């Protein structure tokens, strides 16, 4: 990362810090709206990541169960259904791998930054 890019990122971080330190009228309005929508769960990044991994696992388990049922001759499971479930599970897994790769790359980049 070049020096101007780092300085730009630092300026953006400082602007965000200043914005959070002094709440504006728009943020107060957003808080009022957020209070009205308090039924929406506020989990954060870790919760969202965990839920995504659980969804990927669920897709893989469903695909495996349908494959086994088809192999055992279950008349309620078609080959099309098995193939679609396998593709969904494979795509979800690939997406998970790519997200992990991006997270590792971002972590390495942050660790190599000079303070």
UniProtKB/TrEMBL annotation:
Entry keyword ATP-binding: no
Domain of life: Bacteria
GO annotation, biological process: bacterial-type flagellum-dependent cell motility
Keywords: Bacterial flagellum, Cell projection, Cilium, Flagellum
Major localization class: other
Any single Gene Ontology cellular-component annotation: bacterial-type flagellum basal body
Molecular function terms from GO: cytoskeletal motor activity; structural molecule activity
Cellular localization per UniProt: Bacterial flagellum basal body
Similarity annotation: Belongs to the FliE family.
Protein name: Flagellar hook-basal body complex protein FliE
Source species of the chain: Pseudidiomarina maritima
Protein encoded by which gene: fliE
């Amino acid at each position: 990362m070049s020096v101007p890019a780092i300085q730009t990122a630092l300026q953006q971080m400082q602007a965000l810090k200043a914005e959070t330190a002094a709440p504006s009228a728009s943020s107060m309005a957003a808080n009022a709206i957020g209070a009205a929508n308090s039924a929406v769960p506020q989990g954060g990044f870790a919760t969202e990541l965990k839920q995504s991994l659980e969804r990927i696992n669920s897709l893989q388990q469903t695909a495996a169960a349908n494959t086994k049922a088809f192999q055992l001759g279950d008349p309620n499971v078609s080959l099309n259904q098995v193939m679609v479930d396998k593709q969904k599970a494979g795509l979800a897994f690939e997406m998970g791998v790519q997200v992990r790769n991006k997270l590792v790359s971002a972590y390495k980049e942050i660790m190599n930054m000079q303070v």
